[in-house]
Amino acid sequence: MIQLFLIMPFLVSFVCKCPAKGLFSVFIANLLFELLVKSVPFHPEIYRLFIGRYLFLLAMGVFLRTIKGKKIPMRYLSISFTIGILYICVTNYFLLPDPNGLYSWSFFKYWQMTAFPVAFYLFPFMYFLLEKLSGVQVKTWFGSIMQRIGSRTWHIYGVQMFYFLIVYEVYGVKYDLQRIPLVCEFFVSFFLCISGGFLLYHLENWVRGILAAHLER
User: Fold this and answer.
1) Angstrom distance (rounded) from CA 9 to CA 97
2) How confident is the model at residue 1 (pLDDT cuts 50, 70, 90)?
3) Taking residues 87-104, what's their average pLDDT?
4) How far is residue 44's CA from residue 159's CA, in Å, rounded to a whole number?
5) How many CB atoms lie within 10 A of CB 158?
6) Most C-beta atoms within 10 A of its C-beta, which of 32, 60, 101, 146?
7) pLDDT at 198
8) Among 91, 117, 133, which residue terminates a domain?
9) Considering Cα of 140, then 123, then 28, then 33, what sign does the dihedral take?
10) Do 66 and 166 lie in a common domain?
């Protein structure tokens, strides 16, 4: 999350300045990063949490936001979807890890099934959702709840990272949470992350209010 804070302003500035060329440049940068990981010793846990593997996915989000309201030809969306679905099919059903759990015969050393080319598959769906559903409001209690959750996703994500990286790892081992049925584990984790995200959201607004009051004096 700290990495995202540091790199996102540069990524937004770079892609917004020239969307198509910027997106392609980030794609090349992500390829070079994966090549570096493949070529030099790189601990899998560091790789898993390093934002370098998500650069292209983040850039695609910035790109979609930048071109909002502009039409993308269907042929480009079809090409993107085809590349993505082919990559997913090949990595899931044809390229399997070696006995050490590594993809030694693949371009990607770790977690190739969730590597950045998957973004090509997601891109058309995100484009259509933003085009068709942007601004749509579901005026029901469910829509209200989803709207509230949506406005707090960043805070929920922060709590989720803290929960699964620290709380769950420590207490999960200490109290052997693997014995809990998976359904119960899911609902407990879901409730804690959502409610914790809401608390963090209100705490941030409270702190912002105090700081704003002091600055106005």
Assistant:
1) 36
2) low
3) 68
4) 23
5) 17
6) 60
7) 93
8) 133
9) positive
10) no
